[in-house]
Amino acid sequence: MRGNGEDLRSLCACLLTACWVGVAIAVVTVPAPLRAADPRDARAVDALIARQMSTYHVPGAALALIQDGRVVLVKGYGFRDLATNAPVTLGTLFNIGSISKSFTALGVAQLVDQHQVDLDAPVIRYIPDLRLSDPQATQAVTLRQLLSHASGLPADDQWPRQVPSSREGIVQEFATMPITAQPGTRFQYCSRCVVLAAYVLERVTGQSWEAYTRTHIFEPIGMTTAGFGALGLEDASDRALPYRDETGAGAAPVTWPRLQYLGPLAPAAGIDASIADMARYALLQLGDGTVSGRRVISAQMLAELHRPEIAVGAGWARPDIQSLHYALGWFTGEDRGVQLVYHNGANPGFRATLVFAPSAKAGVVILTNGQAGGFTSATVSLLLEQLLQ
Question: pTM for this one?
């Protein structure tokens, strides 16, 4: 993911000589096994983040950098609450948006490891009462296709804007939605399709997706503060308030009711996590499927989650990414010959990005409580370029 071509060292050196832009930085002792970077590097990164936050009017942000398979920097910047000037900490919860899809894919992959599901079996095997608008598609659509957005079901912009209040209500919508492509032939980004995959997990395990994810993913990874949906954020003492930027009027808060859809849609967009949580999740993705000697997923299934499944159409093309595909819960492509695996997240008042290069064991995570997607993409590009040198 290439930035504007500037070398980060030169850029940061210039930033260090510039006037401070007034963005507060909250630094908290990093819990083991996370490690802080060399202070000189940290100061350079601080200056870069400060300028980017000022440029894009971002209230608060959190950053994790991974190099050579270890976290070298994890830090909070700015404010989680502008009314009280409460700073972002390592434990501040942000909504991570569609990065949540990768957690659902991971949960399904765990069931594959346990021989409880087959990625290539028809979903109707696990949900016998499932009905799609096309009887042939009902018998054909698989978990692999749901998790790679290749089921033939339409993209997000063709579904009703109003999200049903329950997961069962979302599943019932499938009977009325047209099949717009032959299953397995076209990428059509479908968040509700990931919810259907999570519904399979719920049927097979007898647990809610939330309970399963907390027990089998959050806990073994050490994601001790992570939660779900608008209610999970609203009830947390250390959470980022969501803001939108109103031109000429500054940041305005996004009200919690605007995020209520994140409850039923949580498997696709509803996880809330801190930067310390997400740094540990990124380490899992860059490793062999174990955390502190405890296996979370087999190395084979972890690799399959990252393997390209279907080419992404021109509407999703990026000038800095070649061979753009969707895998299982992840986008994947090449930048200057290096394979990248990544996902962005966007909900009202929040933006998030996680990108990593498996071969280099390097990665960047950025979480923010603003709506400036340009901040996350531009900043990640600059930082990743440096990490991959």
Answer: 0.90
